[in-house]
Design brief:
globular, 303 residues, 2 domains, four-stranded parallel sheet, alpha/beta, 13 helices
């Protein structure tokens, strides 16, 4: 039996063949080392993070999240729901808080769920993977599995705006959250603790609808990482990872810069530090290669 077990909500982007499928691969590798079992919620659906705000209505948005909650309670009773995607986590957490606070909304939601033979009981908690790592396992346990310290690599911890909003870790500051810095240091890397863009928005969907605005924000995020001597950026958010990595080329064209900094997930850092291969850390999914991580992954474990 695994040390910890959770009902896993992968979300659309982190699911296999999704734009952040490398995130899922590295999370699974990381969890294998930590003896954490993630069981996907059967027949899960999209959380509606973007489209549900476009006109489907408040009730519909909460019903689609409650369906996932009800499926988890039914199939994986007693297990907290864990998401890796910041948008999925934020959207699901908002739904849970509103459903738990309003008897009327809960009744209307369960009336809709009745059509699918489901009922939301309000039992399961909704958590981000990072919350699980820090609150349920702790930095000591996380660090005890390191066999290839990320020595000599400097990371700018880019939290982004979504996981920073109602983040549940006690003692964290909204203006200057330090959990990514601590994770980096626990893995033997060097955290750029004075990085001043760690909670800046990457522009989200504006990258498509209003690229000039998003690219101005991405420029600041990347430029600050360079100015503070970072070798790469690390984040817990798939959209932040995608925007900040993919659009560096467009930023370079717009501003005449020469940005080419890797943007990685915390789970990739952890997998490499735990002795995983570049493939197990899904480094082959990077657009901008994380060469320094690849080099550490290729080294033999010191005995």
């Amino acid at each position: 039996m695994a040390k910890k077990e959770y009902a896993f909500y992968p979300g659309c982007t982190s699911h296999y063949r999704g734009s952040a499928s490398n995130y899922l691969v590295s999370v699974e590798s990381m969890c294998k080392t930590l003896d954490v079992k993630l069981t996907q919620i059967p027949d899960w659906n999209c959380c509606g993070a973007s489209v549900s705000y476009a006109g489907s209505g408040e009730l519909a948005r909460h019903v689609i999240n409650a369906r996932n909650f009800a499926l988890a309670e039914q199939s994986l009773p007693g297990q907290d729901i864990v998401a890796t995607c910041a948008a999925c986590w934020l959207n699901a957490r908002e739904s849970k808080e509103k459903l738990d606070a309003s008897a009327e909304l809960l009744a209307d939601t369960n009336e809709a769920l009745k059509e699918a033979g489901l009922r939301y009981q309000g039992v399961a908690s909704v958590r981000h993977m990072v919350e699980v790592l820090i609150e349920d396992l702790g930095y000591g346990e996380i660090g005890s599995h390191v066999v290839k310290p990320l020595e000599g690599v400097r990371f700018a911890g880019y939290v982004g705006c979504q996981t920073n909003r109602p983040f549940g870790i006690a003692g964290e500051s909204f203006e200057n959250p330090v959990y990514l810095d601590k994770l980096v240091e626990t893995m033997g890397g060097e955290a750029v603790t004075d990085y001043d863009q760690k909670v800046t928005c990457c522009g989200g969907a504006l990258a498509v609808s209003e690229p000039e605005k998003s690219q101005a924000q991405i420029k600041d995020i990347v430029e600050s990482a360079y100015d503070h001597g970072a070798d790469m950026i690390v984040t817990p958010c798939p959209l932040c990872q995608a925007n900040v990595e993919i659009y560096q080329a467009d930023v370079n064209k717009r501003y005449g810069t020469k940005f080419n900094i890797p943007v990685t997930y915390y789970s990739q850092l952890m997998t490499v530090a735990y002795g995983g291969t570049a493939k197990e850390a899904a480094l082959d999914g990077q657009i901008i290669r994380a060469t320094k991580l690849e080099e550490i992954a290729a080294k033999p474990v010191k005995k």
